[in-house]
UniProtKB/TrEMBL annotation:
PANTHER family: UDP-N-ACETYLMURAMOYLALANINE--D-GLUTAMATE LIGASE
Catalytic activity line of the entry: UDP-N-acetyl-alpha-D-muramoyl-L-alanine + D-glutamate + ATP = UDP-N-acetyl-alpha-D-muramoyl-L-alanyl-D-glutamate + ADP + phosphate + H(+)
Name of the protein described by the UniProt record: UDP-N-acetylmuramoylalanine--D-glutamate ligase
Pfam family, any one: Mur_ligase_M
EC number(s) given by UniProt: 6.3.2.9
Gene that encodes the chain: murD
Chief location of this protein within or outside the cell: cytoplasm
């Protein structure tokens, strides 16, 4: 089990917010002989996690946020989802107490073992592809972060020479001090999470933290077709490795109409790749770059690309029912993700969309609705999306109570060879706890149709 070193010089730590990340961070800190105080508004003192942490020596304060929880505290480890407007965090800033997320702890534990992947879209697919490519090349590797398992928990368990592939959100990256991946991947930048970050500039800066501490000994894989990304990486101190779906590159990954390449080396013919969608070509180029820089073989990369078809909830093929094809893209929580999903199909498509209203409009979807024959809408944004459908002259539009109801209504509008696509363009939190729960409800509803 790996231990924190003098690079983490704090002895008295406040963990703000339990959930998965707070619980895991607390356990890691306690196992490293830190004095841990935990504060959570919604937890119950009789919760199993609370009792376990208390038995290990943690002080746990639940049900309120008294400012006294900051007394004698040297650093705050916050749950990524907690806004910086939180009264404890505002007071911590006033007291000049550092505020981090648990990925900073993961970075301290994992050292040069980290491959970090971020971007507005494609993170999960790229993270999964990179991991699978390394595994297929007989490398030792674990995966964690925004993709599921808490980063600090997995980092503590890393073996010698084992890689740690991390999917990293802007929420996580905003709370770092010295964290740096050996290989960083910056996929794209698109306006998102403005309700949390307040401005697009703040959101971008959080994302760009993925390379802010890198040196010339590290690598930054970046999308040379994305203007925002190209401008940002000019300030990186690391070695730049671009990828492009439009230009031939001598120093990175690229594609032409027939094949994909890394520098001057052909990797695979595009006809052999199973993963659908033009947008996934970017994810593939990013993943093979990160994997190659981390020791993956061409044979390992090819074996993954000839067998890997999708990540769950990311343009996931679910079922064919009476020659209707059902796809689950519940992870499309913003407009860009839905644009890319719609671009993946030429068949007549019935789009299921809607969810949390973050105040944005949806006019950027308009050019991508050419193959959409009908829309079934749900959640807080249903009426906004209905106006979009009218502007696109889509004749069949139905409002559904939820995703399950939307599946039934979509099927009633469909004919042979139609695609029925859940790609909400919105977060799930108005009706579902997570996009995973929303996607699972879609899958269940499709199977019920059978």
């Amino acid at each position: 089990m790996r231990k924190l070193t003098s690079k983490f010089p704090y002895s008295n730590v406040l963990v703000l917010g339990l959930a998965r990340s707070g619980t895991a961070a607390s356990l890691v800190l306690l196992q490293n002989d830190k004095k841990v105080r935990i504060n959570d508004m919604s937890a119950n003192e009789y919760d199993e996690n609370v009792q376990t942490l208390k038995s290990m020596g943690a002080e746990v304060i639940v049900g309120s946020h008294p400012l006294s929880v900051l007394d004698d505290i040297e650093i705050v480890v916050k749950n990524p989802g907690i806004s910086y407007d939180n009264s404890i965090l505002v007071e911590a800033k006033n007291r000049s107490i550092p505020i981090i997320t648990e990925v900073e702890i993961a970075g301290q534990l994992a050292g040069d073992s980290i491959i970090g992947i971020t971007g507005s879209n494609g993170k999960t697919t790229t993270t999964t592809l990179t991991t699978e490519m390394l595994l297929a090349s007989n490398s030792k590797v674990k995966v964690a972060g925004n993709i599921g398992t808490v980063a600090s928990q997995v980092a503590q368990e890393l073996e010698d020479k084992e890689k740690l592939v991390l999917e990293l959100s802007s929420f996580q990256l905003l709370g770092i001090e010295s964290f740096k991946p050996k290989v960083a991947v910056l996929l794209n930048i698109y306006e998102a999470h403005i309700d949390y970050h307040k401005t697009f500039a703040n959101y971008k800066e959080a994302k760009f933290n993925i390379f802010s501490n890198q040196t010339f000994d590290d690598y930054l894989v970046y999308n040379s077709d994305d203007h925002e990304v190209v401008e940002a990486v000019k300030r990186a101190a690391s070695r730049l490795v671009p990828f492009s779906v439009t230009n031939r590159l001598l120093d990175g990954a690229w594609a032409d109409e027939k094949s994909i390449y890394f520098k001057d080396e052909k990797i695979i013919d595009r006809s052999e790749i199973v993963l659908v969608g033009d947008h996934n070509l970017e994810n593939i180029l990013a993943a093979l770059s990160a994997a190659k820089l981390s020791g993956a073989t061409n044979a390992g990369i090819r074996s993954v690309l000839t067998s890997f078809s999708s990540v769950k909830h990311r343009l996931q093929f679910v079922e064919t029912i009476n020659n209707r094809l059902f796809y689950n893209d519940s992870k499309a929580t913003n407009i860009l993700a839905t644009q890319k999903a719609l671009s993946s199909f030429t068949q007549p498509t019935i789009l299921l969309a809607g969810g949390l209203d973050r105040g944005n409009e949806f006019e950027d979807l308009l050019p991508y609705l050419k193959n959409v024959k009908a829309m079934v809408l749900f959640g807080q944004t249903a009426e906004k999306l209905k106006k979009l459908a009218e502007e696109a002259d889509i004749q069949e539009v139905k409002i559904a109570a939820n995703v399950e109801d939307a599946v039934v209504k979509a099927y009633s509008l469909s004919v042979t060879d139609d695609v029925i696509l859940l790609s909400p363009a919105c977060a799930s939190w108005d009706q579902y706890k997570t996009f995973e729960e929303r996607g699972d409800m879609f899958i269940q509803a499709v199977h019920t149709l059978m």
